[in-house]
Amino acid sequence: MTAHAGLDIEAILAKVAPLDEADQGAAGRSSEEHFELRVEGLLGELLDSDALDNIEPLEPVVDGLLYRDSLARLYGPSGTFKSFLTLDFAACVATGVPWHGQDTQRGPVLYLVAEGIRGIRKRVRAWEQHHGRRMTGVKFLPRPVQALDPEWAVLVEVCKRLEPALVIVDTQARVTVGVEENSNTEMGRFVDQMERLRAACGACLLLVHHTGHDTERSREPPP
After folding, report:
1. Domain segments of the chain: what residues?
2. Residue 209: which region, alpha, beta or left (left: phi > 0; alpha: psi -120 to 50)?
3. Going by DSSP bridges, is the β-strand pair 66-67/60-62 parallel, antiparallel, or unpaired?
4. In sequence order, which residues have a C-beta less than 8 Å from that of residue 23 and are 6 or more positions away?
5. Residues near 19 by Cβ (< 8 Å), separated by ≥ 6?
């Protein structure tokens, strides 16, 4: 192991899972060869300035506001009509109606109504009456799926099959019952689950959250 003086390769490899099936063949190599394979693989992922032009641009869901394959959060004090705003997002995206002058990209929407399910029907009917059309294309899940529960994997699979343009979680607090908001470790796990959902379906994942006592910021600092 003289080629990597100061590196405990065995310890490093013990913590690194194989990247893909092809890498499984590295099991028959020496630890140092396996390590070199991983290094070369990571070097191959590096991009220079010219290669950045090959990255697909952000695809808007609501032009200038929400984009596919991204994680967004809307927060504010209770009673500031956050749910009305997000329902309007959902309806406009699902039906292709411009959102207050901003173009939308029409696509399916999944709305986790984790809070206030009893009032959702009246809000939907009010939107339909105002716009003179049905709110087609929106699927409502009328209960919270806990982000750190094994059932989250079921939700991820559902989103993969529905291929929504927009997924709304209303509210964050209702899908994180028992999670300590001031714990960077627990909130880090929560964010990881959100990223898992986003990556699975490529949608814009919009979280609705309440502010705390300080109404200028959401209740917990970002991890």
Report:
1. 2-50, 60-210
2. beta
3. antiparallel
4. 37, 38, 41
5. 38, 41
> CB-based contacts of 186: which residues, under 8 Å, 6+ apart?
148, 179, 180
The pLDDT tens digits for 54-108 are: 988 889 999 999 999 999 999 888 888 898 999 999 999 999 999 999 999 999 9
Question: By the 8 A CB rule, do 112 and 141 touch?
Answer: yes
Global confidence as pTM = 0.76
What is the enclosing helix (H) or strand (E) of 95? helix 82-95
Tokens of 44: 């191959």
**Tokens (6 digits) for 136:** 């087609």
Match 């705390």 to its residue by tokens: 212
Closest CA to 166 of 101, 92, 83, 76: 92
pLDDT for residue 125 is more than 80: yes
User: In this structure, which CATH number among 3.40.50.10260, 3.40.50.300, 2.60.40.10, 3.40.980.10 belongs to the domain 60-210?
Assistant: 3.40.50.300
pLDDT for position 130 = 95
Q: State the number of CA atoms in the 13 A half-sphere of 137 facing the CB.
A: 25
- Select from 109, 86, 88 the least CA-distant residue to 97: 88
The DSSP code for 115 is S
As a dihedral over the C-alpha atoms of residue 152, residue 143, residue 104, residue 66, rounded to 10 degrees, the angle is -50
Task: State the DSSP H helix or E strand holding residue 198, giving kind and residue range, or none if neither.
Answer: helix 184-201
Rounded CA gap, 21 and 23, in Å? 5
